[in-house]
Amino acid sequence: MIHRIKPFLVGLLALIVVSAVIAQSPNDAAKGAGARIKAKVEEVKDGMKKWKASGRDPSAVMATLREKVRPLVDALKPVEAEAELDRLLEQLRQEPKPAHEPARPPSITTGAGPSFSALSPDQPLMTMGDFGMQIIFESVGSPVARIKSKMQLIKKLEPGWIKGGGDAAKLASLTEQVSQFGSKHHFAEAEKTEDQILSLLGAAYTPAENDSNEAHRKERDGFIANGKKFNTTGVEEYMSWSVTEPERGSSNWGVYREDAAAIKKAGLKLVAYLWAQALPTWVKSDPHNVFTGNIDTGLETENLSIFAPETLEAYDHFYGEASRELGDMIDFVRIGSPYDYGECAYPAGAGSPQFPKKNVGPGFWVNEAPARAHFKAAMKAKYGAIAKLNAAWGTSFVSFDAIDYPKDVKSPRWWLDFIHWYQDGFTERMGEIAAIAQKHFPKTPININLGWPFEKVSLGFDITGLTKMASARKLCLRTPTGSHVPFLFTKRVATAARYYQPARFSSEPVGASVTREDMALTYFKDLTTGVNWHMDYTANYERAQDSFAEFRQLWADAQYPQIDTALFFPTTSHFLDDWDNWRPAGFSGGFPSGLQAYAENLRDAIDYDVLDERLVSDGFLKSYRFLIWPVGHVAEADTLQKVRTWVENGGTLLVADLESIKTVEQDRGAFEDLAKLPASNGKRMVGKGSIIKIGAKVEDLASSFPAALDARDGVLISAFKDGALVFNRTDQNVVKRISIKGVSTEIPLSPLQLQWIGTDGKLADSRAAKVP
Prior knowledge:
This protein has 772 residues and is of the alpha/beta class. It is built from 27 helices and 22 strands. The strands form five sheets. An eight-stranded parallel beta barrel has the order 1-2-3-6-7-8-9-10, surrounded by eight helices. It is globular, with a radius of gyration of 28 Å. Mean pLDDT is 86; it is low at 1-31 and 97-112.
């Protein structure tokens, strides 16, 4: 993932924290503040014990201590830290409100904490990941490896230096700078500051020969212990080509064989993420290899081209070695593209701070000769004759060998042909990489990773195309999840997986340092999108144990909600209107203008799926009663025809700007006469169905939507065949009234609570793993 590095950084930043900074300060006022803070922390802890003894859940208080108070103390902000503690004490002194305080499952709120029994065969997979990054950092010369090693030395020397009269405040200030630089991925500055600290301590850094291997073993053993503690199915490990073959022809699989043996001995399954994209140094300098190039800058980077036959040879070599060395010890294989962290997109520089590569940046990464040749062959296959291509593009190329990429959207069909090829070509080649993995692991499930919870056009990231390919090749598919991932993206992937049915549908959060609120939302998303394999990080399991326990009780195998409403994702408009949205740096956004916010607000009013033009073309619109089209004005003629036919057969189209919708060729196609039909209160009858005009905001739906909408109160609901799942996303106790099959029920909900309600209106702490 974009934030896959975060599990490592969390550990790094933990090493940086200087405990009791304020108490160590020579400033008397600071010492006084430190004493008060220490006393109030103890008072908070006593209050939490009383809460727990009375059956109340103190986990939110603990999270505030960890996520707000501790960082303020470490940042030398005693006033702010003390204010947070005062708020917590006020909260702990308040009496419970019986009328609004729901009962939680006893296993979550009593005793030493929740216990996690083994998953039943009917329940989905649950794995813990990922470890192994430190030795990969070492193998590629990443600055992060040196930063961690130096900080370990600093922490070792720090107590003696302070005891001998060293300036604790100055040391605290410098280590805080390292922390700040690290959190921003400014690793050069972080390392420079560490060197300054080592100079202050009078020490020199000399890396020990076996430091990284010993650290790796400790990390592995910790993962195994936690995997057993939480009764997960297995653990996940990064296994990199840069580690296994540091010199051409060498073999260094010993550490991974040792890991596999330890994991299997513990009774856990091994999920191996085979990192072919982390290249050994000798691969980067081998003139035999072809690297991807940027068509905007003309520069190439140190990523193998997905279009080059030599790249497939490299994958065949690495996967073949993995099969020979580990074979049946691997239970699941995760594979990746040649780019960034291996997700299914072109280079965007997500891993550049940790894995420095030259010339990485925004743009379209298909400048290399094999990519251009693939484009020309694809256009020849589509048009057959150069005259047909020129007529469609408005160009005058003399042959297919002479054609080029478009510079902009002035010729819409030329641009759309390029973007569709840019996506389809990547998906096709990713399928070939998967076929290589399946050749070497014929009996082992193979997983590809979507990643990228945003959709800049330059990423070449075709969600539905990749999901369809994964299904055709019987691959597992993994998507990011959590609050960092918009509902638009979550539902977009889930809808594609619902219809194309990959071998398994998996999720993972974007990092290991997310809040309890994030984790609760993550679990709700899994429970309502058909996910049947959840991967998470140890810190997240630890931080959100109450939500995790609820999640396991409620998780039934890949059940999908009953949904009759779809939100339209305007694929063609996105490609044309947002064609240059890749230019700003960063890893967010990139969706059709206005659609992300609309989708986020819509989820609080109704559960929905997301249909793009591929899904409409493949016939899945027929599954819905309502289609909401709030943004986008251009679609392919075939899409407009299929939408019209669906309306005529009884569907209801809710559209913001019917009059402006047109085809790529600028005519109105099947929508030609629709705006001219008589309307009554914004509603037009078309055959057995109707078209209803809506406003630009979700709030406007209340007056026009033909079915009941939920109150937008932060409580999310998904209906299933056997009941409904209710999630209180807010930080307040609420009472929610819902009706299931005519039975109205009031449900008391505490903050972040997941609650199951059966079709009989009765609340339950768990549900059957299989629906009859």
